[in-house]
């Protein structure tokens, strides 16, 4: 439009210049200069218009490029969000799977514990409680199950005239020894404790022995031999021998006794070890799976028997943690204490406590086996029997454990 306007102006100027007389040169020059100036202005305006068009085109191109970039970024963001969501879903799935695995593991563990507790919840009649208390030495009026072999009355005969007060007294003593509230009542905690797997040796008579009264039973020689005379089929024989060797060595570190396995299958040895079931030739029959796990005799008889109705494992965390297997090493460590003359301990954490350790105490949170160690109470009791300088050494040992 501007271009047409200037063209019209040029035409008008030309018409004006043509109409002017040639005799007016000054006026003609002035008009020509005006025309030239108008033409220059027109050219500048056209150039500016072209520049504006060009800039507009460039701006449009930039806008398109920016729009395309934004679209690309939006698409990229959408893709990124998609993959982030996908990664998040996969991550959540993995975490959920791990949590489910842990949950089922804990559930299985709790199930194992609950099964174990359910065993403790089984009804124990007063007659069963009487037999239990008599078997483990809590009935003062009677001599206890260990005197039956000398021709005394049977357990049933001994318990016929057993009074309620005597039963309460015996229950109280058992509760006190087992670390339970001494109520004299056969409550659920007491029933559960009575159902726990344990050693077959008596408690009360041994406690009197721990107090220093009576004759000290001990080995009078330094070197003792032992032999595994009958093995279980639950474990390879070399594992059973390894378990015994490790248990003997653990005690030998603290008392002046040496233990050596007899390689031959005949001849006299000091300590005879075997697995057996039910009635097996001594006065103390085994009771099948659960209950009594093993028993031993004091010096210098040297008998150590394991109940072969149990399922045995050797330092195997997976089996022990399942609550279906019994650790031979722990039971060996305990029973050898009796073979050396030690009685049961009231200290719950001691190896010589009468009850088998809960499997959770033998397996850590990573499902690794936790090797049992002799406690200060165990070592002190052993030194009290075998250490000639026991008073001085016990004081030094006590200081070391306190540190």
From TrEMBL:
Zn(2+) 2 binds at residues 199, 334, 338, 344, 352. Keywords: Calcium, Hydrolase, Membrane, Metal-binding, Metalloprotease, Protease, Transmembrane, Transmembrane helix, Zinc. Can bind about 5 Ca(2+) ions per subunit. Binds 2 Zn(2+) ions per subunit. Ca(2+) 1 binds at residues 234, 308, 310. GO terms for molecular function: metalloendopeptidase activity; zinc ion binding. Ca(2+) 2 binds at residue 270. The active site is at residue 335. InterPro entries: M10A_MMP (IPR033739), MetalloPept_cat_dom_sf (IPR024079), Pept_M10_metallopeptidase (IPR001818), Pept_M10A (IPR021190), Peptidase_Metallo (IPR006026), Peptidoglycan-bd-like (IPR002477), PGBD-like_sf (IPR036365). GO terms for cellular component: extracellular matrix; extracellular space. The chain crosses the membrane at residues 88-107. The keyword Calcium applies. Its cofactor is Ca(2+); Zn(2+). Zn(2+) 1 binds at residues 280, 282, 295, 305. Pfam families: Peptidase_M10, PG_binding_1. CDD domains: ZnMc_MMP. Residues 215-371 form the Peptidase metallopeptidase domain. One of its GO terms (biological process) is proteolysis. Ca(2+) 3 binds at residues 287-288, 307, 310. The keyword Translocase does not apply. A motif (Cysteine switch) lies at residues 197-204. Belongs to the peptidase M10A family. This is ZnMc domain-containing protein.
């Amino acid at each position: 439009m501007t271009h047409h306007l200037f063209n019209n102006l040029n035409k008008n100027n030309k018409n004006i210049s043509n109409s002017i007389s040639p005799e007016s040169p000054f006026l003609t020059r002035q008009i020509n200069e005006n025309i030239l100036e108008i033409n220059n202005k027109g050219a500048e305006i056209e150039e500016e218009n072209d520049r504006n068009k060009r800039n507009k085109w460039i701006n449009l191109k930039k806008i398109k490029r920016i729009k395309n970039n934004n679209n690309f970024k939006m698409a990229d963001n959408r893709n990124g969000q998609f993959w982030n969501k996908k990664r998040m879903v996969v991550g959540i799935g993995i975490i959920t799977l791990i949590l489910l695995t842990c949950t089922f593991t804990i559930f299985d563990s709790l199930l194992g514990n609950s099964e174990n507790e359910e065993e403790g919840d089984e009804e124990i009649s007063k007659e069963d409680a009487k037999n239990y208390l008599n078997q483990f030495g809590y009935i003062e009026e009677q001599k206890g199950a260990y005197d039956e072999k000398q021709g005394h009355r049977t357990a049933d005969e001994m318990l016929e005239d057993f009074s309620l007060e005597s039963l309460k007294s015996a229950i109280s003593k058992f509760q006190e020894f087992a670390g339970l509230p001494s109520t004299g009542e056969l409550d659920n905690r007491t029933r559960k404790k009575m159902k726990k797997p344990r050693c077959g040796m008596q408690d009360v008579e041994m406690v009197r022995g721990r107090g220093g009264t009576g004759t000290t039973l001990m080995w009078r020689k330094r070197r003792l031999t032992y032999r595994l005379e009958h093995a279980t089929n639950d474990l390879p024989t070399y594992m059973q021998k390894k378990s015994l060797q490790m248990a003997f060595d653990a005690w030998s570190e603290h008392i002046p006794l040496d233990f050596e396995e007899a390689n031959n299958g005949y001849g006299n040895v000091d300590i005879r070890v075997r697995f057996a079931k039910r009635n097996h030739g001594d006065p103390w029959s085994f009771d099948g799976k659960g209950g009594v796990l093993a028993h031993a005799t004091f010096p210098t008889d040297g008998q150590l028997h394991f109940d072969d109705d149990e399922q045995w494992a050797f330092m195997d965390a997976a089996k022990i943690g399942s609550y279906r297997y019994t650790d031979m090493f722990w039971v060996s460590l305990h029973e050898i204490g009796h073979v050396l003359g030690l009685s049961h301990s009231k200290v719950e954490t001691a190896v010589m406590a009468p009850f088998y350790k809960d499997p959770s105490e033998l397996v850590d949170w990573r499902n690794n086996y936790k090797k049992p160690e002799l406690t200060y109470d165990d070592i002190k009791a052993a030194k009290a029997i075998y250490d000639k300088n026991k008073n001085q050494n016990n004081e030094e040992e006590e200081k070391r454990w306190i540190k």
